[in-house]
Amino acid sequence: MHEFELIKNYFQKLSKKSPSSLNLNDDVFFDKKHKLAVSVDTYVEGNHFLDFKKPELVIKKIIRSSISDLICKGIKPKYYFISGSGNKKSFSELNLSKISKSLNQEQMKYKIFLSGGDTVFSNKLSFTITSIGFANNIVYRNKAKINDDIYVSGNLGDSYVGLLALKNKIKLNPRLKKYFTDQYFMPKIQLKLTDQIKKFANTSIDVSDGLLADLDKMINSQKLSYKLFLEDIPISNNLKKIIEFKKLSKINCISNGDDYQVLFTASKNNMRIIKKIAYNCRIKLTKIGLIQRHDEKSSIIDVKNREITPKNKGYIHKF
Description:
It is built from nine helices and twelve strands. α2 runs parallel beside α3 (93-110) and α4 (158-166) packs across α5 (174-185). The strands form two sheets. It has a seven-stranded mixed beta sheet, with helices on both faces. It has a five-stranded mixed beta sheet with strand order 1-2-5-3-4, covered by helices on one side. The protein has two domains: 3-134, CATH 3.30.1330.10; 149-308, Alpha-Beta Complex (Phosphoribosyl-aminoimidazole Synthetase, Chain A, domain 2). The protein is 31% helix and 24% strand. By secondary structure, it is of the alpha+beta class.
């Protein structure tokens, strides 16, 4: 069963009397009256991260991916709660020391504060993060408009190559391996965009499951489609080299998620302000396509103006 089928069939009706739950079809809970936003994410070893050989890096990935749910909505994260299930091996004194040190570094970097949590014994390692922030308003899902431009922050695809390197499915020299695995464990989430995105975005989401999968989610209850231009989708110079020499597919690299960049739509009238904010904040914001009517099929166009069909649209949560 698909994640959205599960929510719709069993849980959506339970949230009907809570408008702040946003019909369980957004990344956050948002109580506008109390300016309160909450996001909850669970991460399981072997599914959301390969293993726990580098606990100090795994915990950074988990924290950043969790608070990116708030950041893409224009909410500054402030508090987080962490619950973990594990055993004596995963929660050894050495590992706990590394986790604590990394959490302190993330707190200083993002001005967030550990505020509680729980621990449970289990032979299956997992973490659940609850992130809390405050805002007067947010950027919702499913608020795109026909002819909106589609933008994404930063670069896409580096994290996927980092995962391939960790799985030993691709051979890289030490410098490139470190670069790509760092992008996997420590995604460059766009905190500077938090205070700016509400000035121009109609709708937004973070790229966690893959560009195409998350674009579908961002407009999933609207009768709309999209057109993307593959050549315009931003990737790093290092990834360009890898695609050229290792003969990887760009569309596959940008479709596998874990980038935690901000994907949003905006009116064409806001193009100038977006460029200005990108320049002033030193954030890379790239226009990659446009929103269309529903009767126009969603498409991805390559450099030769041909429509391409990706083999993989991204990570799908199935039960």
